[in-house]
């Protein structure tokens, strides 16, 4: 008789953005979990990581006039949450805010996330997760080259 599967790994992919504008980086405060993070979310079927990153960054931040200026690569993140093990591939892109045009954020995102602009010197250390700190450092290097 086969052994019962004790740990199922849940795999998925996300796309996210690092917006740098006027020497500040956009972060999201998630008060319910005491987190500071970068905007990102699930890649929907048929979406590319870049399309998902633009969509998710707009949904979570409200800023809609975004352009990708650099591919920041991907990070593999593993974590346990509510008794499940997750393996998530996160694709990130450096984005330029072309204008401060905003759209209404979905109600769920408005409740979960507060948009925070931090000076570049403070943004990396403010982030909660190590993988996102790595991405933010990559974004700063890419931004300096532009």
Describe the model.
- The chain has 146 residues and is an alpha+beta fold.
- It has a single domain, classed as Alpha-Beta Complex (Nucleoside Triphosphate Pyrophosphohydrolase), CATH 3.90.79.
- Strands 1, 2, 3, 4, 5, 6 and 7 form a seven-stranded mixed beta sheet that branches.
- Strand 1 and strand 2 form a beta hairpin.
- The longest helix is centred in the C-terminal third of the chain and has 16 residues.
- The radius of gyration is 16 Å and the shape is globular.
- The protein starts with 8 loop residues before the first strand and ends with a helix.
- The relative contact order is 0.26.
- The N terminus is likely disordered.
In angstroms, what is the radius of gyration?
Answer: 16 Å
| Oligomerization | single chain
Q: What is the class in the CATH system?
A: Alpha Beta
Structural class, judged by helices and strands? alpha+beta
- Could you describe the largest sheet, including whether it forms a barrel? 7 strands, mixed
β-strand number: 7
- Unreliable stretches covering 5 or more consecutive residues: 1-5
């Amino acid at each position: 008789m086969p052994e019962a599967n004790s740990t199922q790994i849940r795999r998925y992919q996300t796309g996210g953005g690092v917006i740098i504008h006027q020497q500040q980086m956009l972060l999201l405060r998630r008060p319910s979990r005491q987190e500071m993070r970068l905007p990102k979310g699930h890649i929907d079927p048929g979406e590319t990581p870049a399309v998902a990153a633009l969509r998710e960054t707009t949904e979570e931040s409200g800023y809609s006039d975004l352009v990708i200026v650099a591919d920041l690569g991907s990070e593999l993140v593993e974590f346990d949450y509510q008794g499940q093990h997750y393996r998530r591939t996160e694709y990130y892109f450096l984005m330029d805010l072309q204008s401060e045009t905003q759209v209404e954020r979905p109600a769920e995102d408005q409740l979960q996330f507060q948009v925070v602009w931090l000076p570049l010197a403070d943004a990396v250390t403010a982030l909660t997760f190590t993988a996102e700190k790595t991405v933010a450092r990559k974004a700063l290097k890419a931004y300096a080259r532009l």
